[in-house]
């Protein structure tokens, strides 16, 4: 049976058709993107970092920033938590991974899935720290990239995993004696599991931007500085020095050990020719390899005068000629 087309008559209601045409002809409104904040930076860093490696869904119910002093940090580490030392451009920081999140990260990497049974009550091992190192470095790397878009927001960035902390009571000794930012993330892995908890990050506050150098330096002093700084000098990073008897030295054999203290590992001397110490440094890691981070200079033997001499010549002196 055929269908007859109905012809619209004058006065017929065209409201529905007109509304549909208006919707089709009106371009969609652009939705405003959410403003990037330090809290949102950390949320995205956890979602991206743990989403890639070890590939687990992350939900953050809350992200808060507070203030903490180093002596208060040790009490934040509970039984079964993993404490990590972080190394960054502004000094050492720390991360405290609750046992629920720790169990989820380990299960995902070793079993390929999250378990639904209760989290076992056990002591943290060095293997646990090794399995968590890469995922946390992924989170910190993502945070560093996103934080670059927040210049002037006062958010610390550029940190990486340094070492596990066996005794939480020693953790405050590695932190600078100053207030630190305390980030708290109520974090859950997967859906419907007990792999959750509050992850804490203790990070030093970023150092203020250095003041602009004075523009009053003379042309002669600038050229002299450039000439001196073009010179090359050999540097040695000395981790440890010791003395022993000649007889003991001759008795050393393959497999013998020379013990170093924790203090020896924390201090590295940067020495120039002749064993002259010109700076101090800290032993750490950068880009996945061992490195040393230069600290405050201990000598001013290479410091050049910033103020020009009253009658400085316009050109460099000849070899052997002393400046006035």
Observed structural traits:
cell projection; SpoA-like_sf; Surface presentation of antigens (SPOA); 324 residues; 2 domains; 27% helix; FliN-like_C; cilium; flagellum; 8 helices
Describe the structure.
The protein has 324 residues and is an alpha+beta fold. It has two domains: 167 residues, Chemotaxis protein chec (3-Layer(aba) Sandwich), CATH 3.40.1550; 73 residues, SpoA-like (Surface presentation of antigens (SPOA), Roll), CATH 2.30.330. The longest helix is centred in the middle third of the chain and has 22 residues.
Q: Could you give me the name of the CATH homologous superfamily of the largest domain?
A: CheC-like
| DSSP summary, beta strand count | 10
Top-tier CATH class of the largest domain: Alpha Beta
Rg (CA only): 31 Å
Query: Ends: how far apart?
Result: 114 Å
Roughly how much helix do the residues carry, as a percent range? 25-40%
Here the CATH topology of the largest domain equals Chemotaxis protein chec
Tally of individual helices: 8
Unreliable stretches: 8-15, 304-324
Order of helices and strands: HHEEEHHEHEEHEHHEEE
């Amino acid at each position: 049976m055929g269908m007859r087309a109905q012809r619209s008559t004058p006065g017929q209601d065209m409201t529905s058709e007109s509304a549909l045409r208006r919707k089709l002809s009106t371009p969609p409104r652009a939705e405003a993107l959410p403003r990037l904040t330090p809290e949102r930076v950390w949320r995205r860093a956890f979602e991206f970092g743990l989403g890639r490696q070890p590939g687990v869904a992350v939900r953050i119910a809350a992200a808060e920033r507070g203030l903490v002093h180093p002596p208060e940090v040790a009490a934040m580490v509970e039984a079964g938590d993993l404490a990590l030392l972080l190394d960054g451009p502004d000094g050492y920081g720390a991360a405290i991974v609750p046992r629920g999140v720790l169990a989820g990260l380990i299960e995902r990497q070793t079993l390929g899935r999250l378990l639904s049974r209760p989290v076992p009550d056990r002591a943290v091992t060095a293997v646990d720290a090794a399995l968590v190192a890469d995922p946390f470095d992924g989170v910190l790397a993502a945070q560093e990239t996103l934080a670059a878009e927040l210049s002037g927001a006062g958010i610390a960035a550029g940190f990486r995993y340094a070492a596990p902390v066996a005794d939480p009571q020693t953790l405050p000794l590695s932190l600078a004696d100053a207030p630190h930012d305390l980030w708290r993330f109520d974090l859950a892995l997967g859906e419907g599991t007990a792999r959750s908890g509050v992850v804490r990050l203790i990070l030093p506050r970023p150092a203020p931007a250095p003041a602009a150098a004075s523009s009053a330096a003379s042309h002669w002093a600038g050229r002299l500085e450039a000439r001196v700084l073009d010179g090359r000098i050999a540097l040695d990073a000395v981790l440890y020095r010791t003395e022993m008897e000649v007889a003991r030295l001759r008795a050393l054999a393959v497999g013998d050990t020379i013990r170093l203290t924790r203090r020896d590992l924390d201090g590295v001397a940067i020495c120039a020719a002749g064993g002259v110490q010109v700076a101090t440094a800290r032993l750490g890691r950068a880009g996945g390899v061992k490195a040393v981070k230069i600290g405050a200079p201990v000598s001013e033997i290479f410091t050049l005068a910033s103020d020009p001499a009253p009658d400085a010549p316009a050109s460099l002196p000849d070899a052997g000629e002393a400046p006035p």
